[in-house]
Amino acid sequence: VQPFTNTLAESVGAWGEAKLITQIRRWLGSASPASPFGVGDDCAVLAPANRRQLITVDPVIYGRHFDDTVSPLAVGAKLLKRNLSDIAAMGGRPTAAVVALTLDPLVSQTWLRQFYRGLARCAADHRVPIVGGDIAESPGIFAASLTLLGQATGPRILTRVGARLGDRIYVTGVLGGSLASGHHVKFKPRLAEGAWLAAQPEIRAMMDLSDGLAKDLPALCPPGCDPALDPAAIPRRPGADLAQALTDGEDYELVFVLSGRVDHERFELAWSRKFPQVKLTCIGNFVTNRTRSILAVDLKSFQGYEHLQPRRSLRR
Ligand SMILES: [Mg+2]
Questions:
Q1: Cβ(228)–Cβ(167) under 8 Å?
Q2: Can you say how many angstroms the Cα of residue 299 is from the centroid of all Cα atoms in its chain?
Q3: Sign of CA dihedral 172, 78, 147, 94
Q4: pLDDT for 33-53, tens place per residue?
Q5: Which of 39, 50, 73, 216 is the most exposed place for a label (fewest CB within 10 A)?
Q6: What is the distance in A from the centroid of ligand 1 to the CA of 185?
Q7: What is the Å distance from ligand 1's center to 220 Cα?
């Protein structure tokens, strides 16, 4: 479905800004609380948090993060879920969101209603109030950017820093083929898993996979080390080859590091009891950068998704 219409009467431009805001609040329904804790004042007001707070921002842009094959319901949900995946990657839980729209006045009323319904449904599922936003006009564009606030679920948050030589590297789920399979809109952010992992002291570092393992994993690598990955161990989506599993991106899975000094079989057993439906795979460990086996995957020979690189065609 196309976000745009050629019929002025069916476009958001026919409403003007004030009416559009009224409609958006109606579409969001209970996901949009009234001011001072929500929409209707200069800022939304949040209660003080007793734990460390998290903040992240990610957009969905027409022609870049979705195209006409994706339903507006799924686009709205994806906008929130991309951000939820980042909160999950720290072991946090979401608390509130604001949404900034940039759109052509010829965006269709029906399309935008479905977009907000998808966002509202996802927000309700995760108990995230949409507490504010902004609308700007720009020709030929539909882009929505969501800023998500969250907080730690316990005394600890997990960051990308903390892995050491000998630590084991794990990923959840399967990798690759996200766009082809529709996973990029169907995925479930790993919030419960991330929060549980943050409570395990033997987990040292974590992140989510958005640009592909080849590009993302180096961020977890301790100084002087390399990841030694067993190519046969990389969990692939059916139909995806190794290169796709490493570089396609939009996996929205967790990659994390378990201390090499603990009993990994015990940890794996605890995981399978807690999350029996979620596949967990040890893909390798961190070794000194002189000892990496020639059989291991050389991540530098694979290219993850590079932002801000000139390219011939838009990524779908
Ligand atoms: Mg991330």
A1: no
A2: 22
A3: negative
A4: 988 888 888 999 999 999 999
A5: 50
A6: 16
A7: 12
